[in-house]
Specification:
three-stranded antiparallel sheet, Nucleoside Triphosphate Pyrophosphohydrolase, four-stranded mixed sheet, alpha+beta, 3 helices, 2 domains
Length: 204
């Protein structure tokens, strides 16, 4: 039996055979920060179908890492799933706000901490099937404690845990929040030296 080799593992180039084109769009609901859209699109074969999706302003997640290898996390009740979730701090972008400024603001508001060193890690799209949401992920270091400034009606608890424990909780199913799971794997790679932060430019 001849063993197959793969000389080029990159995805095929050229997207034209896959793209869908919007031919009509309607706003079904416009909420405080989420908008529900219902579009009609033309498929690559020329046929038409419907698409429903949520327009989201985008968000930033911070991984606050202390010098001793511990990280700052949050416990927060998430109404749609009806559970208290274990998460890294995160928050949505305000209008005309850059990702780094959002991270600085949200970290201080939610936890009281500020960071002197920020390294951009990556951008993720957590729900590509029905939302425009993206989350920019930062590693925040050289942390200084302060006082949290939670929004009206916002309730959460912060706690400090060894970085390795976060991965254990992912493996055990105690952490199911997708952004935190991705952040935990990034954190492992950065701490081990396999991946270097700051290799991508910070989105504007």
């Amino acid at each position: 039996m001849t063993e197959k080799t793969h000389d080029n593992l990159a995805p095929p180039s050229g997207d034209e055979g896959l793209k869908e084109v919007c031919v009509a769009s309607a706003t079904v609901h416009r909420g405080k920060f989420l908008t529900l859209k219902q579009d009609i699109v033309r498929l690559p074969d020329g046929k038409q179908t419907g698409r429903e999706y949520v327009v989201h302003p985008g968000a930033v997640m911070m991984i606050p890492l202390f010098d001793d290898g511990t990280v700052l996390m949050e416990r927060q009740f998430r109404y749609p799933v009806g559970e208290v979730m274990l998460e890294f701090p995160a928050g949505k972008l305000d209008p005309e706000e850059g990702a780094l400024r959002c991270g600085e603001r949200e970290l201080e508001e939610e936890t009281g901490y500020s960071a002197a060193r920020w390294d951009y890690l990556t951008r993720i799209h957590p729900v590509i099937s029905y939302s425009t949401e993206f989350i920019d992920v930062f590693l925040a270091r050289d942390l200084s404690a302060g006082h949290a400034k939670l929004d009206e009606g916002e309730f959460l608890e912060t706690f400090i845990v060894p970085a390795g424990q976060v991965l254990d909780w992912v493996r055990q199913g105690r952490i199911t929040d997708v952004k935190t799971i991705i952040g935990a794997f990034w954190l492992e790679k950065v701490i081990s030296g396999v991946w270097q932060p700051g290799e991508q430019p910070v989105p504007r």
